[in-house]
User: Fold this.
Amino acid sequence: MGRRGVESGELRVPTAIAVTSADLALPAQDERTVPAVVLGGLDRLPLDHALTELHTLTEQYGHVVVVCSPATPESVLRRLYTLRSLLESDRIAFFRPALPPLAIAVLARQLRQLASCDLSPGVLASAGRLLTHYLHAGAVLGSVARLDRVPVGLKAHAKSWVPGSQFAVLAHPEPQLVRIGPDAALNGPEFHTWMLVAKGQLQTDWVAGLGTRWNVHGLRETPLPAESPMWWGTGRMVEFCSYLADLPVLYQLVTSVRQTSCHWCGIDVIGDRCVFCSACPPLPEPATPRALERRTPS
Assistant:
C-alpha cells in the first residue's frame, strides 16, 4: 500500500463509520477526515424506516462499521442487531470496545481519518482493536460512590462522601484510581499524544496539569457526551482521553500489522477475529497417530 494511502489526493468512496449519537461525531481532525454517519434515534424510528436507512447506507458505501459505547442504551443495541439480522448482511460490523464514551468518540474519529486511505473494509474495521491500545482514557470525578467500571476500594467509597473530595480515575489501558492531592498522579502514555477534554458539572484544573505531566502536544475541548454520566456514575466530572492524532502515524500502525484473510467470508482482516462475520481462525486439526509417531524420538 505504501504512502499512496495517506498522500493521494483522490478519495474513493470510503467505508462508512457510524456512531449512535451526534455527540460521538467529533469535528474533523484534518481535511481528509470523512464525516461520521449518525444513526441517532434508531430505536424510536418505525422498524421499516430504520431498515430502509441502514440498507441505503450499506448500498451507498458497501460496508458500514458502527462504533458504539458500552453505555449505549440496550434498546438501541437490540434495534441494531435486529436490523442486521433482517438485512442478512455480512457488510455491517458492530464495534463496542470497553472504553468510556469520550474515548469511543476519539476512536470513531481515528477510523474516520483512516477511512480516507486505501485500506480494505475488513482491515479498517479491525484497526479499531489495534488503536484502542494507544488510548489513555479517564476522568476526574466528584464521587466514586456509583462507579462500577473501575475497581473502587472501601476507603475511596468512604472518602467520596467527604465534601469537596475529587478522584482521578484511569479506565484504560490499566485501571487506576487516586484521590486528588499534591502527589496524585496517573500512569500516562510513553509516547507523545494530544488530549481531548470534556467538562461536566465539576470545576477542576487538575486535568490541565495532567496534560503537562503526560507531555501532551496540547489540550482540546469538546462537549461532554450524553452517555458519560451513565458510564462514570456521576455528572460531576471532567472526562479526558489522550490519543494519536496524525494520520500518517495511524496509517503506519495499521499497515505494519500482518493481514490475513477470514477463512469464512474471505475478507482481509488484522487480528484473530473477523469483525464482519465474527469468525475466528479454525482450530488446528489434531495430529494423526502416524504424525505423532513421526514426532516421537527413537
Remarks:
- Confidence is low (pLDDT under 50) at residues 7-12.
- The first strand starts at residue 16 and ends at 19.
